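Researcher: Sit down with what I've pasted below and flag anything odd:
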Amino acid sequence: MLGYPGAGKTTAAKLIAKQKNALHIWADEHRRTHYPEPHYSEEENQKLYLKLNSQAEMALKSDQSVVYDTAFNHYADRKKLRSIAKEAGADTIIIWVQTPLDISKHRALNADLHTETRILGSMTGQNFGRLSDKLEEPKESENTITLDGTKLSTQYIDKKLA
């Protein structure tokens, strides 16, 4: 998943996982479960993603499709996951949820609008800027499907993934 905070990545991930009968690995849900007061420190992130990457690897090696729901906005992170998938004999697809910056920011800063997906609460404007400014667009070599984050629905996802 790739996109700004509040773009609709989790909404898209849930729809895709349901449609494809895939394991939905949702980083925010795991963070909330294991870190009731998350700090987003380097150590916390490393522990969290080591566990999630292992879970993804095990599922892929068992021929289970995986929707890995976190912001893979950095090329290096996507490259690492591609190597995990390749080792498991699986292909990767980048799902880039594109939503206008102002709409994404409004969603991210107002958790009460999206209580099912913004389970860690509202984001600060500073954190939104820090994360959205560092988004690295997919390279031509990356297998990418682009979704409009303002049109997410079961029918729309079915059409885009067909």
